[in-house]
Amino acid sequence: MEGLQRRLAVARGDEPADLVVRGGRVLSVFTREWLEADVALVDGVIAGVGSYDGGASLDASGSYVVPGFIDAHLHLETPKLMVDEFARLVLPMGTTTVVADPHEIANVLGVDGVHWLLDATSGLQLDVYFMASSCVPASPFESPRRPLGPGDLESLMRRRRVLGLAEMMNFPGVISGASSELEKLGLEGAAHVDGHAPGVLGADLQAYVAAGIRSDHEALTVEEGRERLRAGMWLLIREASMARNLRALLPLVEEYGPWHIAFCTDDRDPDDIADSGHINGMVREAVAAGIAPEDAVLMASYHPAVWHGLSRHGAIAPGYVADLLVLPDLVSFQPTTVLKRGKPIEDTPRVEIPEWVRQSVRVAPIAPTDLAIPWSGGAARAIGLIEDQVVTESLEREPAVEGGHAVASAERDLAKIAVVERHLATGRVGLGFVSGSGLQRGALASTVAHDAHNIVVVGMTDRDMAFAVERLVAIGGGIVAVEGLRVLAECPLPVAGLLADAPLAQVVAWSRACNDAAHRLGWTGATPFLTLSFLGLSVIPHLKITDRGLVDVDRFEIVPLRV
Amino acid sequence: MEGLQRRLAVARGDEPADLVVRGGRVLSVFTREWLEADVALVDGVIAGVGSYDGGASLDASGSYVVPGFIDAHLHLETPKLMVDEFARLVLPMGTTTVVADPHEIANVLGVDGVHWLLDATSGLQLDVYFMASSCVPASPFESPRRPLGPGDLESLMRRRRVLGLAEMMNFPGVISGASSELEKLGLEGAAHVDGHAPGVLGADLQAYVAAGIRSDHEALTVEEGRERLRAGMWLLIREASMARNLRALLPLVEEYGPWHIAFCTDDRDPDDIADSGHINGMVREAVAAGIAPEDAVLMASYHPAVWHGLSRHGAIAPGYVADLLVLPDLVSFQPTTVLKRGKPIEDTPRVEIPEWVRQSVRVAPIAPTDLAIPWSGGAARAIGLIEDQVVTESLEREPAVEGGHAVASAERDLAKIAVVERHLATGRVGLGFVSGSGLQRGALASTVAHDAHNIVVVGMTDRDMAFAVERLVAIGGGIVAVEGLRVLAECPLPVAGLLADAPLAQVVAWSRACNDAAHRLGWTGATPFLTLSFLGLSVIPHLKITDRGLVDVDRFEIVPLRV
Fold first, then answer.
1. How many CB atoms lie within 10 A of CB B327?
2. Do A11 and B206 touch (CB under 8 A)?
3. B interface test, pick of A2, A4, A234 with most B CB neighbours within 10 Å
4. pLDDT tens by residue, A44-89
5. Sign of the CA dihedral A546, A548, A549, A550?
């Protein structure tokens, strides 16, 4: 109560603030106006907006003062950085709060991993909130370390920074009324649920919303977005590295205003963030496209907070958390000052990484012969890559046969692909072919392979493929490019096989070296390892592969290699 | 889960709805559009909006379909009707949900009374939500049966239909940081708090909001409203019988749009509701004043629900409670059909009234001599009435003296006023004079006397005043006009001395008879008993009276009768 009494005394002007942000144009997200006002901060909270004297001050004259940006939905694991390094990257860009779905680490380390991530983010200056990952595994064809059940979700949703249930990716299950999915939606903490309903329209969309799911970040078109808004869903406009939807959806902001719309990054690569920014990059692009700056900031601050019920975030008004950005103009959206809970950005201490999260790669001994495909000739299913997209084609190709085995062949544009179960060392391997990679020699492998994050490896020889897998085991996970039993480049991701234990610059350098090596091996697309990492995601059309074999996503079943 | 499975099947179109509202123009409160669509209802919930066949249907072609109206803030006791009768009155007007502050009954019957009101409203077709009354008594100068402490509030806020803490009327206490008030704000259930901050502006308003209070229904002017919106408060526009603020505040809707604005009635008399409607009357008047019908409906349905976190009320979309109004036009806002949880308005069964809520008037034996004021001459403080307003003047007048006592005098326009403690029979009486009533003869008395609801009596002779008090004791509370020891008219309000046990028409007839009698006795203002009922409210400027004596509200202290 003493803290509140002090806050009120500062608000009244009876006691000096810890800091007064003086003379700026302050955005009221409520009236969408710029107020010429001081902002008085105390104990990390905004006490008042008006005319305030006394105490330390920060001169904001000639500048714009807006609330800190909030990412409405992201996967912390995608930038491949430890959480402290991620905070170092995005705080200076004005992202002061994020809401994370930790489903990558949940697939690898189970609910323990999520509790660890909650603990690991608790001391950061960046506010990290979570949603409990609803779909681990993403489909019955994938093999995480273990599935997350309703009990796991309950234990997560009881934690203070867990706001609800994360994206309900099993939309066919929800729409059809599958008991397993409705049980999750009925959990006590699941009053707040994020959606994930790519392409769902009409009566199916009504059913999905009727189940209580009121957001979606998968809308690609104005039509999809409009139907979601009308049905009472929040439209989380996503600008991910591999799925850029901002431009396509901004017409909805022009048509209806910014109401029930918020920004998110979902999956963004580290170099993409370093190059184009984070949520501030979305604001910049929206304003460049003609959206009023006030509305763009609303969708990047107040609205994510409203959607997630973060009632003390996202606005500059009495009682709100003092997350403030000082902007020199309304063009670049690169803050000159970021205040997080009233303080400038501090040195983020390194988060300690316990041994158990580093020891996640368990693979049964693998020999090149384990990757052999006995074959007498005839057509095989092949995953057809579409450059830099996550959707694939389902093709039929005749592989070359050598010594009674189907083999990779650069001539036929067929590389071999394997998914090696890597959580429990079961020795389970799924085998198939990939067309359209351009790969000529060597092999590429990754422990980042959505969503189950088993090892995915694509190569032109079984020996190089087995060698690449062994190398990943040796370094505790990561990505690697090999040729002739030599490592060309690698990016170690020892934390759950997903995150680096190195600074941003190093991770970006490693990552680029890996991509360069892949291109030297013949890969033609711009993002070889990102492409690789989605070939195991069995809920994205059309043909995918897991450790259990090829998955026809349209038929939603395992299919044999032979046609 | 079966219910949800059925809802999804109806949404998908696989099973027939209980009812399809067919062919109307359906308001999407999210995009502010009229959609040509059917609405499929099942188990009292909206399953889908789109194209639906099968099952029973209601033809809405040529009509407008909007969500049921929600009153964001009212006192259920003001219309003087038992809750079932109130429901019978407002449901056909399209009010399907109300959020009530039960602070009248709380003053009379304590927390028991509120729990009873919660129970009494639980079986109604009308959804009645509550806020826990934060300020019982309204000031230290008032005597309720007993004060409501933090423990009482906690017990209330744990009940399912209690949403938070009701209007924090002790705004000076909050702003100054009084521990008693901050303790209430710190209670677990008090994350959601309604405000009450008449005239508060500038740094004081910032402090009030900094305490976590984010609504106000006391704004009278555009300037007050604008400052509240900018500070992040919800503006609950009030159109009460004695405080009509709608017209004055509508320019804010034109300026900023309907965001963070909701409608409420606060205190409305039964005949006012019968004559001008309820929330629908506010919508009608707003539209007549030039507000877009979509925006007016938003402020009357979706926005009250958003403010109060009623996440399944106030919209026509999948998963929302099926509260729908069919409107023939966008002018009258008198629905032709009201659906409440998917059903037409039903016969509301009479709510049983237990004996203990009828036995609330306990007064020590009172004789005319108890009302005598020994006086030797000289000036006395007098409450100066301002016609049909709740604010009074603080006057100084010289009363007539007879036999060593100050007495009422029609010539001098001075009536006598007494407040008689009526909860614990303490015999405590506050005495004073009223100027400006016009009263010539007799006496008027009421057990409805905000907020403590002790008996307030105004009269020209001590004998008639004592007789009026005795009559109220005899009938268990109500209002009464007497002359020459005869009852001219009365309106029995046996339930806590606040509510009638009679139908609307009877209550209105009684109430009018009482007002007519008051006018025959000389009262000049239009609303004698309503005016009377606010003379004891010691938080409204400038001079008021309680059983403890005259209260100078500006100095916030008891003052003697003698100047």
1. 25
2. yes
3. A4
4. 999 999 999 978 999 999 999 999 999 999 999 999 999 999 999 9
5. negative
